[in-house]
Specification:
InterPro entries: ASL1, Asl1_glyco_hydro_catalytic, GH
GO cellular component, one term: fungal-type cell wall
Largest sheet: 6 strands, parallel
CATH superfamily: Glycosidases
CATH class: Alpha Beta
Mean pLDDT: 88
Number of domains: 1
Protein name: (Trans)glycosidase
Number of helices: 9
GO molecular function: hydrolase activity, acting on glycosyl bonds
Pfam family, one: Glyco_hydro_cc
């Protein structure tokens, strides 16, 4: 057996590095690796769409629920075809991106309450609605403060909501800020602070291991218990992407085989989006570098049997 000796200062540095890695929130680690999740200031869409009737769109409870989060439209074009179960997508931004597939609804998000996101918000959200968006998503992970999260107090989020999102109440269904799996108390406070707001559905994120489908259902029910008659959108979920070791593709497919049928039959789960379509993401991308579905993407978007 070989015994290795390290100088004390080296040991201290190694322990410090390990602590910083293990203590950094998942959302922050994810954002450090995938900077698109901490977006640049929102731009204006290059293409504009003619106004549509100024009225709240009809709600169709039988509409498919599946969607996808993405970083570039070239990674979701493969899902805009016959037999695809994916009908919507978002990219943590508000401007309709170039190349957005015609058959997929782009859902705008007001990522944060700062001017880099609110300056172009009104124009971008209206343009997305004119294109066909029936829904709007609120702030990204305001219950957590770190890279990749919007870090907003419930009161400040309610104030920003009234200013920027509430004005669209007659044109789109409005989604709450997207909380993390630890954000239930933040959400409860926000709903109190924004009790006069038209919050039609709650959107949230969930990450855990590939065997936690029981916990997935239990957590969703715990959120449903505090939101009244609102529905739930699971706008980010992944199983095993950030565990050690990472889940295999087959393990993630097994997870989906357990949770997708449950979500599809649960009437208060309105929509969901797997994280994510990005070939450089090694935690379960739905698309490969040639733009075609991975084995996971094939199951998620086309098979599900």
């Amino acid at each position: 057996m070989t015994v290795l000796f390290f100088k004390p200062v080296v040991v201290i540095l190694l322990l410090s590095l390990l602590a910083s890695v293990t203590s950094t929130p998942t959302a922050e680690r994810r954002a450090l690796k995938y900077p698109r999740l901490n977006p640049a200031p929102d731009s204006i869409s290059n293409k504009t769409y003619p106004p549509r009737p100024h009225e709240l769109p009809p709600f169709d409870p039988l509409k498919p629920k599946g969607g996808v989060s993405f970083t570039n439209t070239k990674w979701i074009k493969t899902f805009d075809r016959k037999f695809s179960k994916l009908i919507w997508a978002y990219n943590w931004d508000s401007a309709v991106p170039d190349g957005m597939p015609d058959g997929i609804e782009y859902t705008p998000m007001l990522w944060g309450a700062g001017p880099q996101h609110t300056t172009n918000w009104k124009v971008n959200a209206q343009n997305a609605i004119n294109r066909g968006a029936d829904y709007i998503l609120g702030f990204n992970e305001p219950d957590v403060c770190g890279s990749g999260t919007s870090c907003i107090s419930p009161k400040a989020a309610a104030d920003a909501w009234r200013t920027h999102i509430q004005p669209f109440r007659d044109q789109a269904w409005l989604g709450s800020p997207a909380i993390t799996a630890g954000g239930k108390e933040w959400l409860k406070s926000f709903l109190i602070e924004c009790s006069d707001c038209d919050i039609d559905f709650v959107n949230l994120h969930w990450y855990d291991n590939q065997c936690a489908w029981g916990w997935f259902e239990t957590y969703m029910q715990s959120i449903k218990d505090v939101i009244g008659n609102r529905t739930i959108w699971v706008t980010e979920f992944n199983a095993g992407a950030f565990t050690q070791p990472k889940a295999t593709e087959d393990q993630q497919i097994t997870f989906l085989k357990n949770v997708i049928p449950w979500m599809d039959k649960t009437d208060w789960i309105e929509r969901y989006a797997w994280f994510m379509a990005e070939p450089n993401f090694d935690g379960g991308s739905l698309t490969s570098s040639n733009g075609q579905p991975t084995k996971l993407g094939q199951y998620y978007a086309f098979t599900q049997q």
